[in-house]
Amino acid sequence: MKVLVAVKRVADSNVKVRVRDDESGVELAGVRMGINPFDEVAVEQAVRWKEQGVATEVVCVTCGAAACGDALRTAMAMGADRGVLVETDLGFDLLPLHVAKLLLAVIRREQAQLVLLGKQAVDDDCNQTGQMLAALLGWPQATFASGVEIAGGRARVRREIDGGSETLSMPLPAVITADLRLNEPRYVTLPNLMKARKKALATLRPAELGVELSEHLQTLRVTEPAPRAEGVRVADAAALIDVLKAELAR
Questions:
Q1: pLDDT digit string, tens, across residues 197-229
Q2: 203: domain CATH number?
Q3: 225: Cβ contacts below 8 Å, ≥ 6 apart
Q4: What is the pTM of this model?
C-alpha cells in the first residue's frame, strides 16, 4: 500500500510572528520554519505503518516556493521514502482548493491507496484541504483522527467529535486527516537529516500536472489582534452577575 502524506511549511509554533509594517501579511523573513505540527503527526503515522509492513512506500508532498523543500527533507529524515515538491510562484497565497487540486493530480500520478494530512495548518487554521480533496477524489474520508488501524483493505478510524469520540470503518482508498492525539512524532536526528539529502526529491510545476491556478481572494489588510482587556475581580457570584449584565447591556 502506497501512502501519500501532504505536508505544509509553516512558521515554528514556538515563534511569535509579527505583522509587517505595511499590513500586507506576517513577517516571515528570518523566522524559523518547520512542518505543520498536524502534518508531522501524519508523517509519523505513515512511517510507523511502513515499519510495521502495512505500507510499502511513503511519499510526502508539499506545495509552494522552493524553500518548502526543507519540510520534505525533514519528513524524509523521519522515514518517508520520497518527496514531491509542487513548486508555485504565483504572486498570491495558495488557498485550500488550490492545494486540493494539486494534490489530486499528484495522487493520480502516484496511484496512492491512502492519503494522510493534518486536520489543519497552524498558520491559517482553515481545516478545509482534506475535505475538499476527498470530494474531488470521490473517496471516503475521516477527519480529526486520533487512532487509525488498517486491515483487510479497510481503515478503522477513531475520531474526535463534540460529544466525545466515534469510530468509523471505511474502504480504501481514503483520505484521513490527523489530530495531534494520533501519536507523538519522533525526534529528527542530524544523521537522519544527512541521509535524507540522498533521498529522491522531485520538483513539479502546476502546468506539468495539468492544473491551472487563479487568484480567488485578495488580502486587503492584516492587523494584530486587539489586546485582551484586563480582568475584573469580584467579591461573590452576585457581583459577577451584575458585571456580566453590565457587559451585555453595552
A1: 889 899 999 999 999 888 888 888 888 888 887
A2: 3.40.50.620
A3: none
A4: 0.85
